[in-house]
Amino acid sequence: MSGSTGPIYGIRLLEVLKELGIETHLILSEWGEKTITIETDYKVDEVKALATYVHPATNQAAVISSGSFKTDAMVIVPCSMKTLSAVAHGYADNLVSRAADVVLKERRKLIMVPRETPLSDIHLENMLKLSRMGVVMMPPMPAFYNKPESILDMVDHTVSRLLDQLDIDNHLTRRWLEKEEE
Fold first, then answer.
1. What are the CA-CA distances from residue 59 to residues 64, 82, 97, 99 (Å)?
2. DSSP string across 48-109
3. Are 69 and 63 in contact (CB under 8 A)?
């Protein structure tokens, strides 16, 4: 989790993955921790407790910084434009960008949930560059066909789509259904 707005998406993803018994490795950037405190009622330690393993963002020797450590995928949620740019340009100055660099070099699945609006040409070019490398770009976009009644419903829709990208079955949101013909 990097330091952009929207840590609730990462928190909710961790909650669901924990409920499903799926191993997770959490990296919280310094600003990721601050944003949790600013935007949510969660304590940083509560968020860390949702993960199976927590790695300090400054620990470049963590197991997830090596390609020999097998992972299924990596999700950066939320993803700041600073982190997105670092990954796009191979600037692995912290564990978030180093772990993403490893995922890319090992040809594993990387999903980024960038939080910024409006998007500048630089943001778009970096996203396109990463997309061409196989990175899934998933800016959280609210859907309304599922008739959300709360912010959690909108968060769950995005988390459900993230889980879909990870091939994890879930029922967090109502799915699109064709209207039955009369």
1. 10, 19, 12, 11
2. HHHSSEEEETT-TTSGGGSTTS--SEEEEEEE-HHHHHHHHTT---SHHHHHHHHHHHTT-E
3. yes
Tokens 């097998």 correspond to: 70
- List C-alpha distances in Å: 28 to 37, 128, 135, 181: 12, 25, 20, 49
Instruction: Look at the pTM and tell me if it is higher than 0.90.
Output: yes
pLDDT in tens, the chain (182 residues): 999 999 999 999 999 999 999 999 999 999 999 999 999 999 999 999 999 999 999 999 999 999 999 999 999 999 999 999 999 999 999 999 999 999 999 999 999 999 999 999 999 999 999 999 999 999 999 989 889 999 999 999 999 999 999 999 999 988 877 555 54
Cα separation, 64 vs 78, whole angstroms? 19
